[in-house]
Amino acid sequence: MKVAIDKRPLISGHMVRGIGVHTRELLRAIGLKTKKLKDLKIEAVDFGKVNLEGYDLVHFPYFHPFFLTIPAKVPTKFIVTIHDLIPLLYPKHHPPGIKGRLRYRMQKRRVKNADGIITISETSKKDIVRFLGVSPQKIYVTYLAPREIFKKIYDKNRLSEVRKKYKLPSKFVLYVGDVNYNKNVLGLVKACRIAKLPLVICGKQANEIANSTSDIFSLEGPRDWIRYLFGQPHPEHAHYQKLLSEFKKGAKILRLGYVSDIDLVAVYNLANVYCQPSFYEGFGLPVLEAFACGTPVVIAKTQALVEIAEGAALLANPEDVNDIADKITEVINNNGLREKMIKAGAKKVEKYSWSKTAQKTLSAYSEILSK
Fold first, then answer.
1. Disulfide engineering: 321 pairs with which of 11, 33, 58, 190, CB 3.0-4.6 Å?
2. Do the domains spanning 2-145+353-370 and 156-349 agree at the CATH topology level?
3. Predicted confidence (pLDDT) at residue 180 exceeds the cutoff of 60
4. pLDDT tens for each residue of 212-267
5. Is 353 left (phi over 0), alpha (psi -120 to 50) or beta?
6. DSSP helix/strand/coil, 321
7. Is the per-residue pLDDT at 110 higher than 90?
């Protein structure tokens, strides 16, 4: 049996984001598993350049409701990974426009033709059933996992080097990832100001949002032109302007931009607390990375984050910046609680591994191929 996985997330803008990480680590882990499987051959190929008719099953590792990520006709059995449906959950912040609505209808029809759907949490599974009308029996939940590089560092010299390199304060709150609306970074900024603690943000998007406002070259339709003429920001960019305003208010926000994996591990280790304040997540991989690095975690009380981290992280109301501030302060000031949370995080993260992710993915392949 021959299976093909689309490798385009590894050579596109997704390369350093969650989709790229998922695709890369899945391929690596599957490679280790399939060395012992003589009857199953798995290849990573560019679906834009290869004829898919020669395969028994093809895997599209990326889905977007407003873009045509699935071809109209797939000549063989196929499976699709849907990480989340955030654009459908927050339509005001992700307006599809006329073209996007048309594509959504097409995507909805095409995804129903899939022989299977892989998603990364029970939370996302419920959303897929609700929004796309896919039978729950066709959906396979395969959790993500932190990479092996994320671990506790005991070399004090190494930690000191990274602290100096990025000019990190002696105490700080860490956030890793994009700064889209659902991430609630604006709430975290305000909470850190209340707690009187510096906030360190890792991720290139936080440094790029100044260039994310609409200009005349990015206008696509009548609504864009009307907004441009009246000086109104695109809905996707409105909260960026609020974030920029907050960033400029004080020097207690350090935006590090893109940080290499080897340095990021050290930054996690240096952080006094990691906070994921999101209104919504499909999973929340940085939470597990923090657990693996021995960093106590505060999460928003939202479905997917509770699903993966309950019992090992403090829960805060994402709508209440004072509550987020209180939970962050509690973790930093209560040494007994910190130690308890670090131990709980280390135990919790043992449940997740890329080997398990690969095995569940291979089981999905086998089940689909056997039908």
1. 190
2. yes
3. yes
4. 544 433 434 555 544 444 445 556 667 788 888 888 876 699 999 999 999 999 99
5. beta
6. helix
7. yes
pLDDT computed for residue 214 by the predictor: 44
Q: Which amino acid is at 80?
A: V
pLDDT in tens, 5-61: 999 999 877 777 789 999 999 999 998 766 556 678 899 999 999 999 999 999 999
Burial category of 337 from C-beta neighbours within 10 Å (exposed 0-12, middle 13-18, buried 19 and up): middle
* C-alpha distances in Å from residue 176, one per residue of 16, 21, 257: 12, 14, 10
Indicate the domain borders of the chain: 2-145+353-370, 156-349
Please give the CATH number for the structural domain made up of 156-349: 3.40.50.2000
Residues 6+ away with beta carbon under 8 Å from 81: 22, 59, 60, 61, 62, 63, 117, 118, 119
Q: Helix, strand, or coil here: 363?
A: helix
What distances in angstroms separate CA 210 from CA 51, 159, 198, 239, 256, one per listed residue?
A: 41, 31, 21, 11, 15
Mean pLDDT along residues 271-280: 98
Cα–Cα distance for residue pair 98/125, rounded to 1 Å: 27
CA–CA distance, 268 with 3 (Å, rounded to integer): 37
The pair of structure tokens assigned to 183 is 């991430």
Distance, CA of 61 to CA of 7 (rounded, Å): 8
Euclidean distance between the first and the last CA atom of the chain, given in angstroms as a whole number: 13
| Cα(20)–Cα(26) distance, integer angstroms | 10
324 vs 315: CA distance, rounded Å? 8
DSSP secondary structure string, 197-250? --EEEESTHHHHGGG-S--GGG--SHHHHHHHHTTPPPHHHHHHHHHHHHHTT-
Assess contact for 255 and 209: CB atoms under 8 A.
Answer: no
For 2-145+353-370, CATH number out of 3.60.140.10, 3.40.50.2000, 1.20.1250.20, 3.40.50.1110 equals 3.40.50.2000
Q: How many helices (H) and strands (E) does the chain have?
A: 15, 12
Other C-beta atoms closer than 10 Å to the C-beta of 269 total: 20
Q: Which residues, including other chains, have CB under 8 Å from residue 112's CB and lie 6 or more apart?
A: 132, 133, 134
- The one-character DSSP state at 353 is -
